[in-house]
Amino acid sequence: MTRCDKYLENLSAYLDGELSVDNVKEIEEHSSECESCSEELSVLKTIISALHELEEELPDGFETSLHRRLEEAAAKPGVKIRTGKVRLFAQIAAGFVVVVCLGLAIRAGLMGTGRKTASPAADMSSAQSVIEDRGLGAASGTASTKRAIPEISGRSDGAAYDDRSEMEYYALEDSAENQEVVPADAMEIQKAQVNNDVMIAFSEAEGSYALKQEGQDTLVKITADDAQIALEKIIEIESEINQEEQYSNAAGLNETLNAVDAGIVSGDRIEVKLLYSDDETWNEFLTEVQANFSEVLIEFAPKAEDVEYIRVEIIKQ
Amino acid sequence: MDSAEKNLIELSAKGDVVAFETLIKAHQKKVYNIALRMTKDPEDAQELSQDALVRAFTAIKKFRGESSFSTWLYRITINVCTDFLRKRNRAVIVSLEKGAAGNENSNPVQIPVKDPGPDELAEKKQLKEMVKQAMDKLSVEHRQVLILRDLMDLTYKDIARTLNVNEGTIKSRINRARDALKHIIVEQEELFKDYVVKLNRKGGIS
Questions:
Q1: Residue B114: is its pLDDT beyond 90?
Q2: I need a surface site. Which of A38, A143, A178, B55 has the fewest CB within 10 A?
Q3: CB contact under 8 A, B199 and A46
Q4: Which one, of A6, A69, A14, lies nearest residue A34 by Cα?
């Protein structure tokens, strides 16, 4: 690398005050000697100062229409109470599922057909019962732990509620004392789980279907007819649930989609990774994926980087 | 985060619209400008910046103060706009497949045909217009970093947090983005070079 190359590479960082003192000194020395580099510097400075001036005023009526929209948002029912209430219902329903799971686990064990897989990294404090179905059990060679996501954890508009409007749902929640309603739905859910031939693991310690494990990436394998459409669905799910915007998963997803569009990445197999700092959103994402795709496999694997990711692999059928 | 801001955030989380409006007073123009440079269209920009602000309002209870409030707000805005552009660009691709002509990147930078006069103000305005049009021609990825760096004045660290990529990537991306911007301008317009030379003789543009 010539001195000019190094100079040009650091030019922007120099102008932005993002270089160390030593590097700044180097750059300044070089630009005093090199005419072409010093010209480059002037050009860049001019462009940047023009960029700074691109800011425009707010259009007329901006604040008025924003105010109206904010008032509408504030008045929208359900916005503030959503999370807590859903959780209550999910926990009640989850209780029913775990009973069935335990029952099936015992039965599977007695019959000698269940192949239990123990997760080496599983938190020992979280008692797990794993049920494997005939169909999926055979394919479990590499999985450390497999779990199916119950369709009930954490979201009011998940698949379990598809046939019920949000208002009805809240009505149900408002009468949470009404124990008759809740168990009936829970029964339906456990039935669905059994019929779908899926594996279920329940973490008692966490009181929920933990789909995140310390030190483990969660791997989501989706098989779809069109991987690109599947990726778009993932983007939609992500933008729907990632309201707190802690990480910009959207940017990475869109980059991948653009790469697929441009043919840089093959549409036969697409890999993306997502990051959520809170378990609630993490689980919400996985729940939604489960609800939106028919062929989904969830596994854990030791984390590949310094933080845990959800790694989504979409394979074209 | 100062205590006044913290207080406003808490009130906003309880659904207090006026508190939220006070909170965003200093930021809403920036939010609008991010959307404007991302979408290149004032109407879309108004719609999307308001989408972003409403979204921030409904999600504010989840704001944990890990970044500054403004960075969080910019991140939401960038995401809302990126999502919008993705959907729109896909629509453009579809229409191209059907044989419709023209996509947004096929037009050369339109430099105003007006002769550069002696009026410095007019020259400056012209330069601004050139840069603006060149900016519109950049890829979304490059536009994002330049908006955050040069319009929003974010540090590399904050940009890295906003876009969820590491700082080293941001550093090289900004460098490449500015280089691309410069090439668009210089290639299209020799005039620009003369202009910079002239400016240097005068001792800078500001």
A1: no
A2: A178
A3: yes
A4: A6
